[in-house]
Amino acid sequence: MQTSLLTAEGVRLSLREAGPVDAPPVVLVHGWAQSGEVWPDYPGVRVVAPDLRGHGDSEVTGAGYRDSAAWAADLRAVLDHVGRPATLVGWSYGGLVITDYLREHGTARVDGLVLVGAITEIGRDRPGGATGPVMRRALPAALSEDPAVAVPALAGFFRGQADLPGGLVQRLLGTALRVPPGVRRDLFRRDVDSSTVLEGVDKPTLVVHGTADGVVDPSAGEHAAGTVPGAELRRYERTGHVPFLERPERFADDLLGFVAEVCR
């Protein structure tokens, strides 16, 4: 079911929802230049998958993409919609959006955290934002206004993420091209240190990272797991940047097992 909401700032966000309303809620936060459509459904939980501002069917705002408080407010509006504490799952840039939320609002409305091939900070030499060769090859061309420059760079970016079917790669590319170049650029024009935020997390945390991730370096996942107290790191061997699509059965088992544990 596709729904929408208005944040306190008046930004319209689109949401994809699935599963029983009274099941444990899981908020799935997508990555850079993608949308909530990237996530599968997971049986036995209430899936809420927002499109971030400027992405998918959500509103393209004129500002806010460089502002931690704006991202935090957007995710807070999603949690208001859910109506009770949830497990937050952040893939890639979605991990940074989650740390933005935690910086502003803490963990009171969070049951647990799952970071999937995620960055948790951004900026030169930030260990939680370490990028891999696929990302470095794609930038800055993937941010260009010129389609002759941006499209080949984005195609190479998604081809290089993982061993995914060609049709799926084209769908990911199509989703990325819906995101305006200015939005794609602004998401990288930030300098955010999240070490104190991660050190203050007091909820169960699972870090999932593919050992062959060429977009977000595995060291970023190791940094998050080593900084969040008690976090568990699960390395997916021979897996790239999209564990939930490359190893769907294993990821579903890990996610649903984690949710069942934190909601006991």
Structure description:
Helices cover 38% and strands 17% of the residues. It is built from 10 helices and 8 strands. The model has no long low-confidence stretch (mean pLDDT 96). The chain is globular and about 50 Å long. The protein is an alpha/beta fold and 264 residues long. α1 (68-82) packs across α2 and α4 (147-159) crosses α5. β1 and β2 form a beta hairpin. It has helices spanning 68-82, 93-105, 133-138, 147-159, 166-177, 181-186, 195-199, 218-227, 243-246, 248-262, and strands spanning 2-6, 12-18, 25-29, 46-50, 86-91, 110-116, 205-210, 232-236.
Note the main attributes of this structure.
single chain; 264 residues; alpha/beta; eight-stranded mixed sheet; 10 helices
Which strand order do you get reading across the main beta sheet? 1-2-4-3-5-6-7-8
Spans of at least 5 consecutive residues whose pLDDT stays below 50 are none
Specify the overall morphology: globular
Total strand count, please? Answer: 8
Radius of gyration: 17 Å
Order of helices and strands: EEEEHEHEHHHHHEHEHH
Overall pLDDT confidence: 96
Helix content: 25-40%
Main sheet properties: 8 strands, mixed
Query: What fraction of residues sit in β-strands?
Result: 15-25%
Please report the number of helical segments. Answer: 10
| Helix/strand class | alpha/beta
